[in-house]
């Protein structure tokens, strides 16, 4: 039973990592003018929100 819990935790962690890097890639692909105009806090918040949303979708599919 604990191996199942460990497996779910590892899948969730991997999904969070993948979502984080995909979101960072999307933010990095924005034009430089947009990156300079938008405050850093907004971009950071977008990374967190999109990362959590994507991670939740990945973990739902893994079950």
Topology:
Blueprint: H1 2-28, H2 32-37, H3 40-62
Helix pairs in contact: 1-3
Question: What does this 3D model show about the protein?
Answer:
- It is built from 3 helices and no strands.
- By secondary structure, the protein is mainly alpha-helical.
- α1 runs antiparallel to α3.
The SSE order reads HHH
Strand content: under 5%
Basic shape = elongated
Number of strands: 0
- List the total number of helices: 3
Rg (CA only): 15 Å
Low-confidence stretches: none
**Which range best describes the helical content: under 10%, 10-25%, 25-40%, 40-55%, 55-70% or over 70%?**
over 70%
Give the rounded overall mean pLDDT: 77
- The structural class is mainly alpha
* Cα separation of the termini: 15 Å
Biggest β-sheet description: none
Entry keywords:
single chain, 63 residues, mainly alpha
